[in-house]
Amino acid sequence: xxxxxxxxxxxxxxxxxxxxxxxxxxxxxxxxxxxxxxxxxxxxxxxxxxxxxxxxxxxxxxxxxxxxxxxxxxxxxxxxxxxxxxxxxxxxxxxxxxxxxxxxxxxxxxxxxxxxxxxxx
Length: 121
Ligand code: HEM
Known about the structure:
Elements: E1 11-12, E2 19-20, H1 28-32, H2 73-90, E3 91-95, E4 102-103, E5 109-110, E6 116-120
Antiparallel strand pairs: 1-2, 3-6, 4-5
Bound molecules: protoporphyrin IX containing FE (HEM).
């Protein structure tokens, strides 16, 4: 194909043979937990981002980055913030499985989906 984008699905080869191209998958989880940039990276510590400097570019990217940055980033942040605000303000939460296993995948997935019992204030 002369110039421009290749048709999807992308095939490598000489045009006669269709050979699947090798693909490289980026694992967000390992980027975000790089101990070179984050102290004690596996510790759940939301306060690590408070007051200090912003993480170095492309070291913390839950929504990806660059040209393929998540299109829903600002919407998702607003929804999550509003949801957590309302839950925390009106309820006390109880995590049912505090030692729940997190399965490793491209995105970490808690085995049981982190069930929480909410008690109204
Ligand atoms: C907490 C919620 C979300 C997270 C953590 C998230 C994360 C991501 C990540 C990591 C990517 C891949 C970026 C890359 O390939 O470099 C992505 C892509 C994308 N996301 Fe999200 N996302 C979220 C919510 C949403 C929502 C609510 C929408 C739509 C309303 C959305 C629409 C998209 C689209 C369209 C892409 C593909 C962008 C592209 O390839 O050009 N996302 N997202």
